[in-house]
Amino acid sequence: MKQLKIFFLLMLAPSLIASAQVGAQHFILNGKLDGQQNGLMYLYYSVGQKRQSDSVQIVNGKFSFKGKLDGPSMAYLLLKEEKRSDLNSVGFFLEPAVMKVSVTLNHFRDAKIFGSKSQNEYALLNDRKNKVQKRWQVVMDTLSAVNKRSNFEYQELKNWVLTPYEAETREINFEFFAKHPQSYVTAFMLRLYVSTLPLDTLQMYYNRLGKRMQQTADGKSLADEIKKLKSGSPGSMATDFSTKDINGKSITLSDFRGKYVLLDFWASWCLPCRKGNPHLRTLYSKYRDKGFEIIGISDDDRNHAAWKTAVEQDSLPWLRVLRGFDMEKLLRNEPNTNDISNKFGIHSLPTRILIDPLGKIIGRYGEEEDTMDKQLLDVFHF
Question: Rounded to an integer, what distance in angstroms lies between the CA atom of residue 304 and that of residue 312?
């Protein structure tokens, strides 16, 4: 399974003693590295919605970071190498406190971290999940080898092979949420389930966080995701957008008022999306003359060639556009108003959104086709 590698961050609760020593907004992270005496150590973390990075010299196997936080943050400690790997990197909860970390060269995942209540909670949660992962490691290694050979074959296998593993991991996470409803760890982890939890369930967990946790960076991020999901869910008016199609022609969603429009969020690399295209072609052929349009919104902004090849291979006859994702703006922490997926709270592919002739969203579907088919059947009275 792919692990997210570079700096994505969170927030933690300060301890009273440490806060008295350094002040509520300051942190000190003292570290020891076994196996290497000198070099550079890097630390990535967040202050509010801004990503921060820092580096310090390792002297005689020791290093120390100092900085400011406006609340707890998930941080990422990394030993700079020509060939960066998970062996020398670790994610953990950083907070306004005096903290200590002890790491060993090529074994950063076994880091010992002290001084953070939230990190202690996170470590206990991960210990339980790591035991599950160890039982599945051979399977995961096998899937990883398959992925190197064929990503499509990997997607095909993992969707059913890893179902028991994912169910067990999910159960552990939700037991933690229930026991620690107002934990920084819960606020952080809930963001991983934005794409899979029903909107009302996600709202319930957000409400349980309480006002203090809702004001943290992760709490605000979760609220923002809920808002986007609502804007892309049945009952909401579809957010308008303008873009250019695959041929360079300008299109605007609101120009299709009077028709039923299906927004198909997909990608060339998404196996379930590609497998679903023949069925969409059938629906398009059946309903096109009855006031039905499809706009395919591809997550291939960084690979236009793959997008165009997939469009040709799958013989997609409808309108085809890119989502408008801009990695440079993301890295600069700037808003990307052209990102269509962001406007509709898209976190998994495929996602299909059905809009009525007045511009109101009346359906949202994932891989399942039966619900979408039935709704289209009802709409066109067949």
Answer: 12
Rounded to whole angstroms, the Cα distance separating 295 from 283 reads 13
Q: What CA–CA distance (Å, rounded) separates 284 from 299? A: 21
pLDDT one-digit tens code per residue, 65-109: 999 988 788 999 999 764 556 789 999 999 999 999 999 999 998
Q: What secondary structure does DSSP assign to 317-330, as a single string?
A: -SEEEE----HHHH
The candidate with the shortest Cα–Cα distance to 94, out of 126, 64, 117, is 117
3-state secondary structure of 3: coil
The DSSP code for 69 is -
Confirm whether 237 is domain-assigned: no
Do 21 and 75 belong together in one domain? yes
Strand partners, 177: none
DSSP state of 108: G
Q: Total domain count for the chain?
A: 3
Q: Which residues pair with 90 in a beta bridge?
A: 77
Phi, psi for residue 316 in degrees, rounded to 5 = -85, 115
Domain span including residue 313:
242-379
- Helices and strands (H, E) in the chain, number of each type: 13, 15
Residue 37, Cβ density class (10 Å: 0-12 exposed, 13-18 middle, ≥19 buried): exposed
Residue 366 lies in a domain: yes
pTM for this structure?
0.81
Residue 277, domain CATH: 3.40.30.10
First-to-last C-alpha distance (Å) of the chain: 44
Asked if 177 and 221 sit in the same domain, the reply is yes
Q: What is the pLDDT of residues 44-77, one digit of tens each?
A: 998 877 788 999 999 999 999 999 988 788 999 9
Q: Are 144 and 86 in contact (CB under 8 A)?
A: no
